[in-house]
Amino acid sequence: MSGRTKPSAEPRRRLFLVAAGLAAIVLATVPHRIAALSAPDLAAIDRAWSDGSLDVEQAGAAIAFAPPSEADIPNDVFGDMVRRGIAIFTDTRNEAKPFAGDGLDCSSCHLDRGRRPGAAPMWAAWVRYPRFRSKNDAVNTMTMRIQGCFRFSMNGAPPPDDSEIMTALQTYFYWLARGAPTGGRLAGAGFTRLSEPAEAPSIARGAAVFAGKCAACHGSDGQGRRVAGADGYQFPPLWGQSAYNWGAGMASVATAAAFIRANMPYGLRDALTEQEAWDVAMFVDSHERPQDPRFAGSLAETRARYHDSKWSLYGTYQGGVRLGDPSNYPLAGGR
Amino acid sequence: MPPMADGLAEADWGDIAVHLEHLTTAAYPTSPAIADDALALGRSVAVLGRPDRGVSPCSRCHGPGGIGVAPYFPALMGLDARYIIAQIIAFRGGQRRNAMLRLMDPVAHGLEVQEIEAVAGYFAKQRPGALQ
After folding, report:
1. CA-CA distance, A79 to A86, in Å (whole number)?
2. Interval A199-220 mean pLDDT
3. Model ipTM over 0.90
4. What pLDDT was estimated at residue A329?
5. For A9-59, how does the pLDDT look when each residue is reduced to its tens digit (9 = 90+)?
6. In Å, how far is A65's CA from the nearest CA of chain B?
7. The model's pTM
8. Which of A47, A106, A189, B131 is the most buried (most CB within 10 A)?
């Protein structure tokens, strides 16, 4: 089972080329501030993308904050946009179809509809943007951040800056964060980084953890589980053609381990030790997945530029397969 | 079904088969009516859970409307509300311990009584393709 086919990938690429062409014409003829409205700046997104979920400044005391109840979403035009944002956030595959490229929804990682502390909650993220990031030596907006998620974690295409999808998602985040101090470091933000593992993470030990505590939901083949008759995943695929691509934060073992330790198995607390989280993250991220859309022409070059870390297995040999080799999967998503 | 089947001795299989063979068909008992506010409370528990009390949303594992996610998460859709209540109470009391990774323990312990009744009533009312 290789997941959803992508018959629309080629027409979409053509659409983008046409759009890019139009943008070039428009750029030449109208003031820049108008033309800049919608086309995502892929180069800027690429440079900004990294283990961003861990990129939470640790200085200062954390501030306690709880998002409002969904029962309090107002029954007006603003409230309708909040609800639209929730629908996109929780069923991204269907509600943002042209841009979502894999089996994941926003809420696959941002658990409990982006509300859960320790699972990169959106109320904590909202108050931290725009922010300077040394990664690309520039100020990054929330829009760029969301576009990065679509491009890498959802192996899709970034929704345009002024699109309804972008408006709805950011309206939802703003509503979640209402009352939180702008720029504040909120308790539960991001994923809590783990300290270095006591023992080097082991793929073999991770496989045993996976079989015992993860496979029931994600499948022994890591391909997730669907509801019969529904176009979506109940439990997301973790590797293979329908999973997050090599450019996603979760493809870093350190990010995956932090997420897993705090949040998995879903519904249980402290069910895995830190070492088990490192081991199973190593196991999950030792499988092939869609190509990094920043692919620089060669594995070595792409690894040097974006995966120069002991926590990325990109470009390494695992079970006779060289991860990220373009001949394994065609570059289908991550446009 | 695997957790159910795993809990049975081989001799039980024959007994169950004989029992089923001798059942006569009867109209499925209707669940007690549920008030609108209880249905809303039940929906809220099913969809949002009660994360502050360690209660995951039911639909996260059992699927939208409790349609069930094979092979480990049984359907709740359309079950008799009294049966669902009895199971949650049994998980809470430790009489039932066969949930995958004992995932039901924090749920059963974290819910309040009126939430258990409401969420049972909510699932009893759900039908395929017509979530309420």
Report:
1. 11
2. 97
3. no
4. 81
5. 444 445 554 555 544 444 444 444 444 457 788 887 777 776 554 555 555
6. 13
7. 0.85
8. A106
- Mean pLDDT computed over A268-281: 96
Give the integer Cα–Cα distance in Å for A332 and A334.
7
Residue whose pair of structure tokens reads 């993860």 in the numeric block: A214
Lowest-confidence pick of A135-139, A261-265, B41-45 = A135-139
For residue B72, give how far its alpha carbon lies from the nearest alpha carbon of chain A (Å). Answer: 7
Cα–Cα distance, A306 to A298 (Å, whole number): 12
Task: Name which of A112, A227, A266 is nearest B64 (Cβ-Cβ).
Answer: A227
Residue of chain A nearest B51, judged by CA positions: A116
pLDDT (mean) for A289-313: 93
Taking CA atoms, what residue in B is nearest to A268? Answer: B103
Residue positions counted in chain B: 132
Q: How far apart are CA A87 and CA A176, in angstroms?
A: 14
Is A1's pLDDT higher than 80? no
**Short-list A191, A129, A145, A142, CA closest to A46:** A145
Find all residues with CB under 8 Å of A36, minimum gap 6, and list them. Answer: A161
Q: Cβ contacts of residue B51 below 8 Å, gap of 6+?
A: A112, A115, A116
CA torsion, ordered B49, B50, B52, B54, to nearest 10 deg: -70
Shortest Cα–Cα distance, B43 to chain A (Å): 12
Interface test with B, best of A86, A123, A227 (most B CBs within 10 A): A227
Q: Tell me how crowded residue A107 is: count the other CB atoms within 10 A of its CB.
A: 21
pLDDT of A102: 86
Cα–Cα distance, A236 to A329 (Å, whole number): 19
CA angle, corner A151, sides to A113 and A59, nearest 5?
Answer: 60
B contacts of A230 (beta carbons < 8 Å): 63-64
The interaxial angle of helices B113-125 and B81-93, nearest 10 deg, is 140
Cβ separation B64–A230 shorter than 8 A: yes
| Position A315 pLDDT exceeds 70 | yes
Q: How many degrees, rounded to 5, is the angle at CA A266 between CA B73 and CA A226?
A: 45
Q: Does B7 touch chain A (CB under 8 A)?
A: no
Burial class from Cβ neighbours inside 10 Å (0-12, 13-18, 19+) for residue A252 reads buried
Tally Cβ neighbours within 10 Å of residue A26.
16
Please indicate if any CB of chain B lies within 8 Å of the CB of A110: no
